């Protein structure tokens, strides 16, 4: 039994005031909410652990892809250097990659904003349904 909860005594039911009962109810609700939050955290951690191996494999693949892209860009610079100066070939490749990165960054930011707005709208709708249950 929780330390704030007082045991009930059937022989003396009138000893507790309404304020004490309400304080106990509020304390119990707070304890239940805290326990639910702890349970959700434990469940989330357990779910994330199942994705750890997949995350390591994905990270390895991304790093390998970055190295492959780097060597591919080096090959493009080497090929362009056959018809122009090496510094000019490197500059052209760098500018092309910078433009590609800016475009991809802008697309990612726009997608993130749309998803965040959709999630916010979903959360608001769920909160509204929770506060005002349908009849």
Order of helices and strands: HHH
Residue fraction in strands = under 5%
* Rg (C-alpha, Å): 30 Å
Count of helix runs: 3
Number of extended strands: 0
Mean pLDDT across every amino acid position: 86
Alpha carbon gap, first and last residue: 37 Å
Indicate the percent of residues in helices. Answer: over 70%
Shape label: elongated
- Low-confidence sequence ranges: none
Largest sheet: none
Structural class, from helix and strand content? mainly alpha
Give a structural overview.
The chain has helices spanning 18-50, 52-80, 86-131. With 135 residues, the chain is an all-alpha fold. The radius of gyration is 30 Å and the shape is elongated. It has 3 helices and no strands. Helix content is 80%, strand content 0%.
The gist of it:
The protein is mainly α and 135 residues long. Helix content is 80%, strand content 0%.
């Amino acid at each position: 039994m929780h330390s704030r909860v007082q045991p009930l005594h059937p022989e003396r039911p009138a000893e507790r005031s309404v304020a004490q009962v309400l304080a106990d109810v509020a304390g119990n609700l707070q304890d239940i909410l805290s326990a639910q939050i702890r349970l959700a955290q434990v469940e989330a951690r357990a779910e994330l652990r199942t994705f750890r191996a997949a995350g390591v494999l994905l990270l390895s693949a991304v790093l390998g892809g970055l190295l492959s892209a780097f060597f591919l860009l080096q090959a493009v610079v080497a090929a362009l250097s056959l018809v122009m100066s090496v510094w000019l070939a490197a500059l052209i490749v760098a500018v092309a990659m910078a433009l590609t990165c800016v475009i991809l960054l802008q697309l990612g930011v726009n997608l993130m904003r749309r998803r965040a707005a959709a999630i916010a709208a979903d959360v608001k709708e769920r909160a509204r349904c929770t506060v005002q249950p349908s009849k």
